[in-house]
Amino acid sequence: FCAVSIASVFRNKDIQWSLKTEKMQQQLFYTLLVQTIFPILFVCLPCGGIINFPLLGFGLNVFPNLVSASLTIYP
């Protein structure tokens, strides 16, 4: 929701941004996206996989090591 709201403000032609302000706001927006995507990739998805793989019939031989490695990469 926040990303869509921010993008719609940037696309609004009624607001006159200076070039420097627009560039800085775009950099902050990309930083926000990266700060959102990294925890999902390295924390939520591996932990969710560990919880859901046994329900889907997959074994857990390799995945516990992958989750511990992924959790150490993020912080």
From TrEMBL:
Keywords: Membrane, Transmembrane, Transmembrane helix. InterPro entries: 7TM_GPCR_serpentine_rcpt_Str. Pfam families: 7TM_GPCR_Str. The keyword Secreted does not apply. The chain crosses the membrane at residues 28-51. This is G protein-coupled receptor. It comes from Pristionchus entomophagus.
